[in-house]
Amino acid sequence: MSPLTTTRVLACAIAMLMIVGACGTKAPGTVAPDPAALARVPRVTTANVLAAATVTPPPVVILLDEAGALHVTAIASWAALATQDPMKGARATDRASVARVLAEGRAKALSPTEIVEAFGRPYTPPPEPAAPPANQDEEEDEDDQDYTGVMIQFEEGKMGKKDSARAEGQYKMIKEPRTPAELAAVARRRAREEVYTVAGRRRPSRVGPPGDVAAAVNVVVGEVITDGEFERPAAGLLLAAPRVKATELVDALAASHARIAVAYDGAVRQLHIELLPDLEFGREPRRWLELRVGRTELAVEAVPEVPIVVEGPIVQPAFVAALAQARARRALDPQVRVDVLVEPTVDAQRVIDVLAALDQAGVRMIGLGRAPAPDSAEAKLRGVRRAALRFRRASVQGDVDARVIEATIFGRREELRACYTTALTTTPALAGTVSMQFFIQPGGAVAASNADGVDPVLASCVADVIKATPFPKPAHGGGAQVNDQITFEP
Known about the structure:
19% strand
């Protein structure tokens, strides 16, 4: 080859490289990501927190703008999420409509386009169900049959309402799992149930045990999926503006149970957190971690306990150390659920940063809700170590509802807690169950009250509190004999 020919070949090669460099390596017809589109959702910096990429079209898209307004739309592809403005042609809606229409879409297996169209149709509430005949006995709930040795739902909190609604498919035949994905789903379900203590009956998902140490309403519980595909089809995909208030994000997730969209490496992806439907896995932890998220600080607390405060941006080693220290204070299982409670000053990007940090720290069950309002009764019950009282199902012989008896005893919980706190001053490790026996007279006063177990001084104090408690009058002018138990834990 002559020197001239060699020079021409090199020149052509250099020209081709310059063309490739200018045009990139994208296939013909591929549209480059739009930075403005990617800026519409929070971002993450690692692929470890993302669900596997999929070629199927995204589910119905729920848009949450910076003002907290909701819109819905259908997007043809995941690539379009990173290149188009989803607000064009989107339909305005509200949280109640989101919850109702998405539930209808799941039940009828509607496509995203059909679901969006359903938002435009007028809604007529269904008629109220007719009352049963007066002589018809109420169907017995399986959860009311045997409570021997089982913690009831209002332990350290409000007495739960009877759940007449069953989880969908409860009475359907259950197919034996066969595929690897099904077996993985069963293993995850069993693992998360082992983390919790039986609370007696199912109820809608909420952050933390019920009652005086519970978080506010509008909460949702999710599981980090790392060993397989999601167990159920997505209810929707939530695209939240990074600067929208985190409380609006929480409310939108509670209404939709949607997947959370984030931006990563020039694409819109979804976090691998699967939100659990209401009434599923209603077992509550007896102790749990709470991560209260402020604008510049994080407070990690094994409720109720003195919190560990982490200031400034999230630094993963310090964050992991704070979680471990909080667990150690209450001897919590490493896999105990962490409830993320957001303050009104926090934005969605801050919450996504926290969720990603928890994921990387190995947390697999996460609650998400609003933090208790400052100076509220709930807020005052945090930040200090408090003795725990757990109330069991009462046994009543007489014409008075056991639930009324239990609620009345629960109303004296602070006096009962004071009994235990006094006993702890002499025996710091004191813990156990006190059994009570008392008789309620026709007028509601307690004629005789006895208690035994754990410690004589504690049992005597408990008996005195019950003796001084006025109870509702038994029906038909009779009395009532009550046997009950309270478990005390430091």
